Amino acid sequence: MPEFTPITAVPAAVSTVSPPVALPAEPGWRHPRRGISLSEVHGSIAVPGEGASFWRKFRAYWGPGLLVSVGYMDPGNWATDIAGGAKFGYTLLSVVLLSNLFAMLLQHLAVKLGVVTGRDLAQACRDHYSKPVAMVLWVLCEIAIAACDLAEVIGSAIAFNLLFGLPITWGIVLTTFDVLLILLLQSKGFRVIESIVMALIFTIFVCFLYEIIASHPDWVGLAGGLVPRAVVVTNPAMLYVAIGILGATVMPHNLYLHSAIVQVRQIEPTEKGKRSAIKFATIDSTTALGLAFFVNAAILVTAAAAFHGKGYDNVADIADAHKLLTPVLGAGAASVVFAIALLASGQSSTLTGTLAGQVVMEGFLHIKLRPWLRRLVTRLLAVVPAFIVALLYGEKGTGELLVLSQVILSLQLSFAVIPLVLFTNDKLKMGVFVNRPWLRIMAWVVAGIILALNAFLLYQTFAGNE
């Protein structure tokens, strides 16, 4: 596969169409690359050379996986995991496990695409498909980002309410001001963002370690819940929550994000250098997604242990779960710890949502907006519907909207997964890095399962059997 000379990073963006950057023609692509992903931080983090130890290289690549894993433990996951645990006990633990395994595979493919081709998924789609198809994919991805941001808005607002007694509507308005925080952090360098996200994830991890200990789960039932059961598909109510968990776990915009942020490292443009980058970036993401699995499983296990079979099977609302944790578990700090973890989850998800929005808009449209303007537009798309629902229906309405946002994410998922699988299976695009036969089969099986589950969900919805 021909090698290409690295290009100089483009200055920070303004709200204009980014000028095309002349790059050599590449086999398998219709057009030369017009620019690079996240140009202000592209290739900004050095990695050690060939003689460095495994751990030194791992430390250099450690970070992007954490940013991606944040999307797998955002407030949307909380709503679906709480609903699944309270209604069905430990049964849907198998869905959480399978979703995380799917995520590990798909994020590995996103890493390969970004490292090998130097394009993120949005740029690849813009080149491969006709303009009308690319625009449809862009709109669908923006809907997914808005749905994810909706979960962050509602989750953070609920956390403010639980910790400080702030009304949900005021909490929703308050979340718009994190635009300033994002702008400040982006100006400090990418390692700062990664470090802050790491601290927030550690907070969430510790909080749920406490929650699991306090809930005294049935360990035998927990282990049995990790085994898939046919009832998950045959029970429409269970399937709806299961697909919500899938949508909340495997996030479509994370595939776009990961294919871009993996290029923040200074990857040596040789076959050996790219193989090393793929190896360590995959270890990074798989390890981080393992932490995300623990958090998601802990939320479901806590809800199952605290509510299922104890007269609280219908608890699907984060606020209700918070109110009931202390009286049900008898642990005085349980509710406070729960709310702190929720706030950390919402704020960390905010960081990655901004980056994903930037990658998608620049990749599909070749338009670069000022970071604060991009964040404000994205946040308003989430704040307005959340604010209206909160005014009309209160906390209950926002809780239901949270679960719905995750189902919307799941419905958008195939439109990101299928192009990713197609591209990484393409010999012309990937060269010697093309997926091996066993990986091709696994990738298409995962894509097929996601597509089939979503089709079944739509059938159940329109047939009125929900």
From TrEMBL:
<feature type="transmembrane region" description="Helical">
    <location>
        <begin position="132"/>
        <end position="158"/>
    </location>
</feature>
<keyword id="KW-0472">Membrane</keyword>
<comment type="similarity">
    <text>Belongs to the NRAMP family.</text>
</comment>
<dbReference type="GO" id="GO:0005384">
    <property type="term" value="F:manganese ion transmembrane transporter activity"/>
</dbReference>
<dbReference type="GO" id="GO:0015086">
    <property type="term" value="F:cadmium ion transmembrane transporter activity"/>
</dbReference>
<feature type="transmembrane region" description="Helical">
    <location>
        <begin position="237"/>
        <end position="257"/>
    </location>
</feature>
<keyword id="KW-1003">Cell membrane</keyword>
<feature type="transmembrane region" description="Helical">
    <location>
        <begin position="437"/>
        <end position="459"/>
    </location>
</feature>
<keyword id="KW-0813">Transport</keyword>
<feature type="transmembrane region" description="Helical">
    <location>
        <begin position="88"/>
        <end position="111"/>
    </location>
</feature>
<keyword id="KW-1133">Transmembrane helix</keyword>
<keyword id="KW-0812">Transmembrane</keyword>
<feature type="transmembrane region" description="Helical">
    <location>
        <begin position="197"/>
        <end position="217"/>
    </location>
</feature>
<dbReference type="InterPro" id="IPR001046">
    <property type="entry name" value="NRAMP_fam"/>
</dbReference>
<keyword id="KW-0406">Ion transport</keyword>
<dbReference type="GO" id="GO:0005886">
    <property type="term" value="C:plasma membrane"/>
</dbReference>
<feature type="transmembrane region" description="Helical">
    <location>
        <begin position="406"/>
        <end position="425"/>
    </location>
</feature>
<keyword id="KW-0769">Symport</keyword>
<dbReference type="GO" id="GO:0015293">
    <property type="term" value="F:symporter activity"/>
</dbReference>
<dbReference type="Pfam" id="PF01566">
    <property type="entry name" value="Nramp"/>
</dbReference>
<protein>
    <recommendedName>
        <fullName>Divalent metal cation transporter MntH</fullName>
    </recommendedName>
</protein>
<feature type="transmembrane region" description="Helical">
    <location>
        <begin position="324"/>
        <end position="344"/>
    </location>
</feature>
<dbReference type="GO" id="GO:0046872">
    <property type="term" value="F:metal ion binding"/>
</dbReference>
<feature type="transmembrane region" description="Helical">
    <location>
        <begin position="376"/>
        <end position="394"/>
    </location>
</feature>
<feature type="transmembrane region" description="Helical">
    <location>
        <begin position="278"/>
        <end position="304"/>
    </location>
</feature>
<dbReference type="GO" id="GO:0034755">
    <property type="term" value="P:iron ion transmembrane transport"/>
</dbReference>
<feature type="transmembrane region" description="Helical">
    <location>
        <begin position="164"/>
        <end position="185"/>
    </location>
</feature>
<comment type="function">
    <text>H(+)-stimulated, divalent metal cation uptake system.</text>
</comment>
